[in-house]
Each structure stands twice: as C-alpha cells, then as structure tokens.
Amino acid sequence: MRKFLLGVPLALGVVGSLTAEESGTFIGAGYQVGQGRMNTNLYNTVAPNGTSYPPGTGPDYKNWQGTNVSWHAKYANGAMNGFGFLIGQKFFFKLPHAKTKWLGVRYYGFLDYGFSDLGPQLSLVGYDQNVRLSMVAYGIGADIMGNFIDRKNASVGVFGGFAIGGNAWQVNAATLHAWKAALLAADPSANLSGLPHHGNFNVWLNFGFRTNIYKHNGLELGVKLPMLVNPFFPSKSANTGGYYYSLKRDYSVYVRYLYTF
Length: 261
Known about the structure:
Elements: H1 2-12, E1 24-40, E2 44-46, E3 51-53, E4 75-93, E5 103-120, E6 130-150, E7 154-171, H2 173-186, E8 199-213, E9 217-226, E10 230-234, E11 244-260
Antiparallel strand pairs: 1-4, 1-11, 2-3, 4-5, 5-6, 6-7, 7-8, 8-9, 9-11, 10-11
C-alpha cells in the first residue's frame, strides 16, 4: 500500500508540467464505513431460566467470528455504512528556505450519513425485530496538511484536525416502541416526556493520508472519531437513578475524492 501511494504520484510526475498543489476552493464526496453502537443499563430477563441479557443480545448471541458474546456486554453494535460530503477552502504556504509550498491549512463544512443494523433485540416486551439506526452528522472543521512528496503535478502527504457540529439520530418505529415499553416495564414511574433526544452536539477528530494529482484531483484515506455520546433515551424517575438507551458512532473510516477549482 505504501509503495502504491508513493509510486502513483511519482509516475505521474513525468507526464506533465502543471504547477504543484495550490490554494483553492474544493468540494468532495466519499464512502464511509465504521461502527454504530447502542448502550443501555436496562438488562432484560429471558425466560425460562431467568438469565439477564442486554437488549440486542440473547442466550445464543454470536459475533461475526461465531463466538458467543451474550455474557460480556451491555451494548449492541454493528457495521455502520454511509457517505459524506464536504466543501471548503485550502491554503498552502511557502516557509522560509523551503523549496515548495508543502504546508497548508483548510476549513470546510461537512454532511455525513450512516446506517447500521444491530440485529435482533430480545426485550421485556417480547420484541425480536432488528434494531436499525440512522445517523446524520453536520458541522464545520479545520485541518493542517503537510506534503512529504511535492512534485510539479502531484503531491502526497498527511492531514489532521478537528470538527464541531451536531449529530441527529433516528431508530425504526418498532424499536422506539419497544424501548419505551421496556423502560416503563422496568420502572412504571419513569417520566418519558420530551424523549427521545434525537440530536446532540459533537466533536470529531480527523486524520489520514492524502494525495493531489494535476492540481484539481485529490484522493484521501482517513479516520473520523466522534468524541461524544448521544443520550437518546434517558428516563427520569423518582424511584431509581433512571434507565437509558444511548447511541454513538464509534469511528468511521472513509475514502473520498476531492476536486479543487
């Protein structure tokens, strides 16, 4: 992989004589894959042996490797696939004594979408359909960029930065109904008014590898890490500390194409 990332721009470097990477406005789109997670402190009792399991698991719940994982978790997780868009502007600078403008910064606005199927949930209300999560993330971000290869018509480098914005979550209607029923079954005095909380503020870390070819075309392989959890369904109760269902996208790995004007 390293030889490929380095070799393609170098090979292209002998083809043309266009200028190296410059400042400009860019747009981009890409595919994302990561992990969606549901976390809860509400354990459900599975008859007939009375053993307690978290929602999303059961007496014979196995991961993709076939290992029984029913005993260890209070959450359910699954692959979250989606896409992302961004638009922004980048600036490259020539430092004193440097031969090229290898250091740059950029700012951008972004919109991401993800979907995850966590599998069946076994609950106090007999619900056994799959839990499906939909997520939209949006906000603004800024990155520092550095090119360790900077040729006339191709560059290769790295980037890193952060973003701030909002997350909006939705679950399928049957899941939402089951969660409400399970919370009330565990604590009939729970106050569910104003719930669920579909949106929350979030902060993301963002880093990866990048290449820019013939001034206008860019490819990036990166990782985005959301820092905060959405308290999707925190019940309020005078009798207990409250039960909850929370949602989070643990990470996303993405590949995207960018076009600079």
